[in-house]
TrEMBL record:
ATP binds at G237, P238, P239, G240, T241, G242, K243, T244. It is an enzyme of class 3 (hydrolase). Homohexamer. The gene is ftsH. Its cofactor is Zn(2+). Its EC number is 3.4.24.-. InterPro entries: AAA+_ATPase, AAA_lid_3, ATP-dep_Zn_Metalloprotease, ATPase_AAA_core, ATPase_AAA_CS, FtsH, P-loop_NTPase, Pept_M41_FtsH_extracell. The active site is at E461. The lineage of its organism: Bacteria, Pseudomonadati, Bacteroidota, Flavobacteriia, Flavobacteriales. GO terms for molecular function: metallopeptidase activity. This is ATP-dependent zinc metalloprotease FtsH. Residues 593-620 form a coiled coil. Belongs to the AAA ATPase family. HAMAP family: FtsH (MF_01458). Signal peptide: none annotated.
């Protein structure tokens, strides 16, 4: 019996909403054309012009509507061929049983108009046909004006009856397929060119997802030993590290149906639509199993429930999440449907979503190290016409902290800079300019700056360079410039050492170097300016991290107020008392002031060299490591493994 009902439903013709849209558009256009053609009563003219046409023998017939005092003029075929009347004939897209008039006009008193008409027409060799009509014309116009509305109302009633009859138990969101999944399907018939060869670095993450692809292709390899493939894998990492790229590579390698969509695709203004789309997505995936579902930016619907006091159990986003939790834990392990998801905010995801049986694996996609950056450069340099002597090792060392997306942007910007300068290939300098452009902003050589401001900027940047050169653990200098970029009037570029752990003396040296600019202003001009805003922001964050996160303060001790789960971000209540807050503030201030005084002492001891370096900077506007070596000599503690 159930099968018979199923067959009946399957054989029932489906009424697609696109047919509805087509019918409505066709009716609308048809009404427009029909009304324009039937209501067109010829070009407007005046009685004086009409009598002139009448005297010339151009008029074949005149219809006089007595109650509206409107006259419709029909010309002879010879007159219609004249140049003056060519635009008077109305066009009709629909066949019409009656001939359309050429002109129409309004007249005054009927008796006077009739007398004048007879007076002119009596001397004509070919007298026109004069016909008097009553108010039937008004009824025709009224009918044509209300007919479109009657038809539209009838079509709408028909559509609503069809929809209400075929909706079954589905909610109102099923109307016009609004509850259907918006996932884009990639399969063997879809050309997806991205493969694992296009994903440089990320070796650990690639190994994890390759195993998932291998299971879908050869499941017996794993099931023969009693193993079960994970139901879900969550890609976690900073923005631009290649999470979505890795998913695209899975789509290109898997050769199985791959459903891709964003977490925001589930969100809709109608109640119940998000849950309906989740159900439809998993229904399609099960029908095409083995298959993969990829949900990008899953934090749009996977945010932890109950954190917002204003949202209750009927919150639409929570309903969508509840349906997703049910679907992920509802299908059996033998359905071969695997869920991949990506987010850079795993700390805010609901714990029920992260448990084993849903997202069994968390694959962390971190920022690339120097070796991985070199591999990423190799991928993005393939389509470029690069210089033969381009050193990839040099480029990878010049871009610490860059993500894969940043490196792609560097390669593109370098190509644009080379093309702008009329070069035939992209060389080393183009890449350095591209890095400067991305980090510092657009160069503004024509920015208006007074000589005194320029001198202050030069000593400020020279102070950074001198202090960093004198400290053992400060980052090695690459170049110093006083050419304005973006919102900054100058900049000192460093090549930081990539460390896995950081010691207190390393953090203190970096803070001292950052305060070298303000210290130079104090030493040379005996006054300070607002130019150190970004430096103060940086050192304040570092000092606060030393005290409240890493437990590197002797006064606070081995305590941390950092919560890796993201549950407490110092909202309404702080995890420490007011006395501790005062102690933390004082400790942060002491650390910063100590390093500031240390920077002033270093610059006072090397005042002559600071002035010499600033004068060179004012002359050249851009100086490099070589200029500092000429003034200070080589750093005695410089590490051999760091090359610029």
């Amino acid at each position: 019996m159930a099968n018979d009902k199923k067959n009946i439903n399957e054989n029932k013709p489906k009424f697609s909403p696109y047919w509805i849209y087509g019918i409505l558009i066709a009716l609308f256009l048809g009404f427009q054309l029909f009304s324009s053609s039937t209501s067109q009563d010829g070009s407007a003219t005046t009685p004086s012009q009409f009598f002139k046409y009448l005297e010339d023998g151009d008029v074949a017939k005149v219809d006089i509507i007595k109650n509206t005092r409107v006259a419709k003029v029909y010309l002879t075929s010879e007159a219609e061929a004249k140049e003056i009347h060519k635009k008077s004939k109305p066009t009709s897209f629909l066949p019409s049983a009656t001939e359309l008039p050429n002109y129409k006009f309004e007249f005054g008193d009927l008796q006077n108009f009739e007398n004048q008409l007879n007076e002119v027409a009596k001397d004509l060799p070919n007298k026109p046909i004069i016909k008097f009509d009553t108010e039937t014309d008004n009824w025709g116009n009224l009918l044509m004006s209300i007919l479109p509305f009657i038809l539209l109302i009838g079509v709408w009633i028909f559509i609503m009856r069809r929809m209400s009859g075929g909706a079954g138990g589905g909610a109102g969101g099923q109307i016009f397929n609004i509850g259907k999944s918006k996932a884009k399907l990639f399969d063997q018939n879809t050309e997806v060119k991205t493969t694992f060869k296009d994903v440089a670095g990320l070796e650990g993450a690639k190994e994890e997802v390759q195993e998932i692809v291998d299971f879908l292709k050869f499941p017996e390899k794993y099931t023969s030993l009693g193993g079960k493939i994970p139901k879900g894998a969550l890609l976690v990492g900073p923005p631009g590290t290649g999470k979505t790229l890795l998913a695209r590579a899975v789509a290109g390698e898997a050769k199985v149906p791959f459903f891709s969509l964003s977490g925001s695709d589930f969100v809709e203004m109608f109640v119940g639509v998000g849950a309906s789309r989740v159900r439809d997505l998993f229904k399609q995936a099960k029908e095409k199993s083995p298959s993969i579902i990829f949900i990008d930016e899953i934090d749009a619907i996977g945010r932890a429930r109950g954190k917002n006091a204003m949202s209750g159990s009927n919150d639409e986003r929570e309903n969508t999440l509840n349906q997703l939790l049910t679907e992920m834990d509802g299908f059996g392990t033998n359905t071969n449907v695997i869920v991949l998801a990506a987010t850079n905010r795993a700390d805010i995801l609901d714990t029920a979503l992260m448990r084993a049986g849903r997202f069994d694996r968390q694959i962390y996609v971190d920022l690339p190290d120097v070796r991985e950056r070199q591999e990423i450069f190799e991928v993005h340099l393939r389509p470029l016409k690069k210089d033969k002597d381009l050193d990839l090792d040099f480029l990878s060392k010049q871009t610490p902290g860059f993500s894969g997306a940043d490196i792609a942007n560097v390669c593109n910007e370098a190509a644009l800079i080379a093309a702008r300068n009329g070069k035939k290939s992209v060389d080393k300098q183009d890449f350095l300019d591209a890095v400067d452009r991305i980090i510092g902003g657009l160069e503004k050589k024509n920015k208006i700056i007074t000589p005194s401001e320029k001198r202050a900027v030069a000593f400020h940047e020279a102070g950074h360079a001198v202090v960093s050169w004198m400290l053992e653990h400060a980052a090695p200098l690459v170049k110093v410039t006083i050419v304005p970029r973006g919102r900054s009037l100058g900049a000192a570029w460093y090549l930081p050492e990539e460390r896995l752990i950081v010691h207190p003396e390393q953090m203190l040296d970096e803070m001292c170097a950052a305060l070298g600019g303000r210290a130079a202003e104090k030493v040379i001009f005996n006054k300070i300016s607002t130019g150190a805003l970004s430096d103060l922001e940086k050192v304040t964050k570092q000092a606060r991290a030393m005290v409240t996160i890493y437990g590197l303060s002797d006064k606070i001790g081995n305590l941390t107020y950092y919560d890796s789960s993201g549950q407490n971000e110092y909202g309404f209540t702080k995890p420490y008392s007011e006395q501790t807050a005062e102690l933390i503030d004082k400790e942060i201030s002491d650390i910063i002031e100590t390093q500031y005084k240390r920077a002033i002492k270093l610059l006072e001891d090397n005042r002559d060299k600071l002035t010499e370096l600033a004068e060179v900077l004012l002359e050249k506007e851009v100086i490099f490591k070589d200029n500092l070596e000429l003034i200070f000599g080589k750093r005695a503690f410089e590490k051999e493994d760091i090359e610029n």
